[in-house]
Amino acid sequence: MWARIESARAGLRRAWQRKPWLIAAVLLAAAVTVAVVLWTRPQPQLREAFHGLPHVYSYLQADSSAQVQLHMMSAQPADIILRSAGSALRPIAAYGINGGFFYGSDLLSVAVMNDRPVNGVQGAYGSGWFNAKYPRGTLVWDGASGALSVQVVSSGDELDVTDRGHYWAQGGISMNLQHEELWQAAAAAEYLPYADEQRMRSGLVYNADGKLWLIVTPTRCTAEEFRTAILEAVPGGGREGIFLDGDGSSQMNAAEALLTGDSRPVVQMIALAGAKQP
Questions:
Q1: Helix, strand or coil, per DSSP, at residue 72
Q2: Which residues contact 264 (CB under 8 A, 6 or more apart)?
Q3: What is d(CA 78, CA 68) in angstroms, rounded to the nearest whole number?
Q4: Domain boundaries, the chain
């Protein structure tokens, strides 16, 4: 056996000495073949955490006349679940978008379901029971009456609902889509952050048909440009809504569009029914 091995080695040495270019070409061709096979081999597809969950929304993308790109998920208010997040949205097993304003682990916007704040207990700072510091536009679904409204409140105590066991309320900043002459003054009174700066933005809007739209733009734009895009693109009449937290917090989990903002952790999420509970 050793004799055969030595003979093969000697043969390779002689071939290399006589025609080194031929050996190099063969080796190069083999390497290229292996590389092509590895490159073209189907790669396993990584699934998002929310893959396969019930699809209880419709998706729409639209560009405004000012080239603000809106990604919109429309849903029924009864399918909304306000929940804590504590991370960027992408690893959360839920469709939806980011919610209200926060600082650190404290939620600074109302986020209440059936009289229970999503980030703590009633009356606790940072729990979602308060719009911190200022009365602010809060989108409310009254489950008993089926009505949607925007109410300017400071806390969950001030919410006007039929049944305290059947509603949700999401805080933000009033858009006043029905009052062109009032919206800027109202937004200033509610201290809309960075209104005139180019930022990614999020919003929650409903129309007269009772349909809700969860909206995120990855386009950096002013609050006015975002609001104008919503007036141009959101279907239906009688629209009203609120600005949500924005910039790097503007995130969306949808089968059709994954918007990660700057992947920062957010405290609260507006999720859709079928989400896996934390």
A1: strand
A2: 88, 248, 249
A3: 29
A4: 7-40, 57-272
Burial of 246 (0-12, 13-18, 19+ CB in 10 A): buried
Residue 75: which of 97, 91, 90, 93 has the closest Cα? 97
Residue in 198, 240, 248 with CA at minimum distance from that of residue 90: 248
- CA–CA separation, 50 and 36 (whole Å): 33
Any idea what the Cα angle at residue 98 is, between residues 255 and 248, rounded to 5°?
100
* Torsions phi, psi for 67 (to 5 deg): 65, 35
Residues 4 and 184: their CA atoms lie apart, in Å, by: 90
d(CA 54, CA 103): 32
Q: Whose structure tokens read 């055969």?
A: 4
Beta bridge partners of 240: 206
Burial environment of residue 28 by CB neighbours within 10 A (0 to 12, 13 to 18, 19 or more): exposed
Q: End-to-end alpha-carbon separation of the chain, Å?
A: 66
* Cβ(73)–Cβ(95) below 8 Å: yes
Residues 229/200, Cβ–Cβ less than 8 Å? no
The predicted-structure confidence for 135-190, as pLDDT tens digits, reads as follows 999 999 999 999 999 999 999 999 999 999 999 999 999 999 999 999 999 999 99
Max alpha carbon distance in the chain (Å)?
98
pTM, to two decimals: 0.83
AA letter at 29: A
Rounded CA separation 211/92 (Å): 24
**Residue 155: how many CB atoms within 10 A of its CB?**
18
DSSP lists the bridge partners of residue 141 as 148, 168
7-17 pLDDT per residue, tens: 656 555 665 56
